[in-house]
Amino acid sequence: MKVTFSSPGAANSGAALVISASGEGHAYDSAALSAAAKAADFHGKKGDGFETYAVTGGGTVKLFMRGRGDQDHFDYEMATARVAKSLRGTGETELTVHLDGTDATPVDAARAALGARLAAYVWEKHKSKATKAKKPHLGSITIVSDDAEASQAAYDNYFGPVGDGVVFARDLVNAPPNEIYPKAYADRIETLSEFGIEVEVLGEKKMEKLGMHSLLGVGLGSERESQLVIMKYMGGEKGEAPTALVGKGVTFDTGGISLKPGANMWDMKGDMGGSAAVVGAMIGLAKRKAKANVVGLVGLVENMPDGKAQLPGDIVVSMSGQTIEVQNTDAEGRLVLADALHYAQEEYKPKAMVNLATLTGAIIVSLGHEYAGVFSRNDEIAKELVAAGETSTDLTWRLPMADAYDKMLNSPNADMKNIGGRAAGSITAAQFLGRFVKKDLPWAHIDIAGTGMKNGSKDPREPTFGTGFGVRLLNRWIADNYEG
Ligand code: BES
Ligand code: MN
Ligand code: ZN
Predict the structure, then answer these.
(1) How far is 420 from 441, CA to CA, in rounded Å?
(2) Which of 66, 82, 334, 377 is catalytic?
(3) Listing from the earlier edge strand, what are the strands of the sheet with 352-357?
(4) Any residues with CB less than 8 A from the CB of 39 and at least 6 apart, and which?
(5) For 105-147, how does the pLDDT look when each residue is reduced to its tens digit (9 = 90+)?
(6) Is the distance from CB of 142 to CB of 5 less than 8 angstroms?
(7) Three-class DSSP category at 60
(8) Which of 302, 378, 423, 476 has the most beta carbons within 10 angstroms of its beta carbon?
């Protein structure tokens, strides 16, 4: 996607969106537009809007008029995204957004560009040539604003790179499981070295040596080798402890021997959404040259039933030494994260750690697809993540953790079992993870089962299914709290 910022000037070719505060059409002002505005009862007020065609020197332009009104806050990103989404499938390849004459700041302008870009995203890699050729997509976005230079800088230094991360994450989540399985996924992550990210891949042999039997147990039924991938981006002070980001990367979750029902099982190709958020976040950080040290770890495993698969009742010894009775092989994400979190904490001594995971169906019951659940024993980090959720628009809501929930994981046969029963399913999952993290390390778990995958999302910035949730959140969280 080509993204350009320019100062007010001549009318453009392609489609155009004018955000108008009092009815004016800027570069498109004409008697015909005034007449159309009158017919549409358009005065630039909140909620006003119409579509028309404007004849300009360069040709005829499909023109979207939208009212800015005098409201305190106007969401330029969403307004632009709605128009860009409406152009999906129309064959329109260029969109120019006119923000001049409004109160749009450089950040608003950069966000408008990001909104258009995210809204124009389509997953069509596997459509055959014949299908693809039918309709070209939006390939060029121009934002016209009063301070084009500062807008361009805001985009280049932040929103553009973060957008690259979101798109990368979406592609990973949307990819089919015969394309993104652990080894293929690790290979894909290795390409991140071109952005200055150091990548290390641990295979099953190395993980066995480290004693990661909780993670490895999940992959026992799969023909595909499990992987732990570590990404290092050191843009901060030399020697300063990093922040750790950890992601659940179950490339397909059949449930294992505790097999899931067939309906909608295909959605479980997206059970690596937490890891995709970490990978996308690392891309954003590296491309915008964030002044922070960050390590990203993703546990990549395929959860399959098979003669070699682990059984309900199996007891595994995690790398931490704690033993786990695997009562349900479908509660596998926590088993993967238990070892990944422990390893991240011991190996990198981070000053803070956040993990993301499509961990529980129960979080969808609690929060739907709008907010991700934040779980933490540390009020500070929880507040930071809720605040970063608001500013980044990757919304998060805190749910409780407490000893009473933790007790629900006690097992007569081992140190713990991997399920807590029907009640408070998302919280007991968080408590499970908490058992593998030192109490004094600021740590939070974010359950993105609802926000990472959204079939038929109504948010104009999102495609159907893989949203890339978490990339914007993590970049905001690090930018606001860990960049010197
Ligand atoms: N990957 C699923 C959670 C999930 C469900 C994500 C639906 C997205 C949509 C996870 O591994 C899982 O199966 N969790 C179980 C836990 C249960 C067995 C305690 C669940 O939520 O049912
Ligand atoms: Mn599962
Ligand atoms: Zn899962």
Answers:
(1) 24
(2) 334
(3) 198-202, 227-234, 293-303, 243-253, 352-357, 443-447, 372-376, 396-399
(4) none
(5) 999 999 999 999 999 999 999 999 878 777 889 999 999 999 9
(6) yes
(7) strand
(8) 302
Any idea where the domains of the chain sit in the sequence?
A: 2-146, 163-481
State yes or no: pLDDT of 13 exceeds 90. Answer: no
334 is catalytic: yes
Is ligand 1 within 6 A of the CB of residue 152? Answer: no
Dig out the tokens for 414 from the structure: 């081992």
249/230 Cα distance (integer angstroms): 12
Residue owning tokens 């307004």: 79
Q: Of the listed 45, 260, 291, 398, which one is catalytic?
A: 260
Q: Which of 269, 325, 360 to mutate to test the pocket of ligand 1 (most atoms within 8 A of CB)?
A: 360
Q: How many angstroms separate the alpha carbon of residue 458 from the centre of ligand 3?
A: 24
Q: Is the CB of 372 under 6 A from ligand 1?
A: no
Distance CA 216, CA 196 (A): 29
Find the 214 Cα to ligand 3 centroid distance in Å.
14
Question: Which residues are registered as beta bridge partners of 142?
Answer: 4, 96
Residue 58 in this model has a pLDDT that exceeds 80: no
Contact 380, 442 (CB under 8 A): yes
Residue 196: name the closest of 235, 240, 161 by CA.
235
- The CATH code of domain 2-146 reads 3.40.220.10
Query: Does the pLDDT value for residue 26 go beyond 90?
Result: no
316-340 pLDDT per residue, tens: 999 999 999 999 999 999 999 999 9
Q: Which two tokens stand for residue 359?
A: 């961990």
Pairing type for strands 227-234 and 140-144 reads: unpaired
261 alpha carbon to ligand 3 midpoint, in Å? 13
Q: Quick check: is 461 catalytic?
A: no
Looking from the CA of residue 303, the nearest atom of ligand 1 is 11
Confidence check: pLDDT of 11 > 80: no
- Mean pLDDT of all residues belonging to the chain: 97
- Report the pLDDT averaged over residues 184-189: 99
394 CA → ligand 1 middle, Å:
21
The verdict on the CB of residue 328 being under 6 Å from ligand 1 is yes
Does the fold of domain 163-481 match that of domain 2-146? no
Ion ligand 3 — residues with CB < 5 Å = 250, 253, 271, 333
Structure token pair of residue 60: 């005829």
Ligand number with the minimum distance to the CA of 359: 1
The topology (CATH level 3) of 163-481 is Aminopeptidase (3.40.630)
422-432 tens-digit pLDDT: 999 999 999 99
Where would I find the H helices in 318-408? 333-348, 362-367, 379-392, 403-406
In the structure, what pLDDT confidence band is assigned to residue 152 with cuts at 50, 70 and 90? very high
Determine the pLDDT at residue 93: 96
